[in-house]
Design goal:
By secondary structure, this protein is an all-alpha fold. The protein contains four helices and no strands. It has one domain. 87% of the residues lie in helices and 0% in strands. Helix 2 runs antiparallel to helix 3. It is elongated, with a radius of gyration of 22 Å.
């Protein structure tokens, strides 16, 4: 259990340090108002991202229950395999790499 907690903690810290608007706002709040407002920005960002992940995965699981979506998924997989085969075949004809 401790390993899972530490892994999640490290992931959260790495997630919070990625450059972007949230980091800029965290630095601004931290420099102007201190630690607690900056921490609130980061917690809000993590909660918001977790909420969007839950919503996205829920919608995806609901979509995959329909037969029409499964058929389209199989067509997409077949298309990707065909593109991969063509690329492999074309690269074997030339020495461009």
């Amino acid at each position: 259990m401790l390993t899972i907690f530490l892994s999640a903690l490290i992931f959260g810290v790495v997630f919070c340090l990625s450059p972007g608007a949230v980091l800029a706002e965290t630095l601004r709040r931290g420099l102007l108002h201190g630690f607690k407002p900056a921490l609130r920005v980061q917690i809000g960002s993590l909660v918001g991202d977790a909420l969007w992940a839950v919503i996205g995965l829920t919608v995806l699981s609901l979509l995959l229950e329909h037969e029409q979506v499964r058929i389209q998924k199989l067509r997409g997989q077949a298309l990707l395999l065909q593109v991969m085969w063509r690329f492999q075949y074309l690269t074997s004809l030339t020495d461009w790499y």
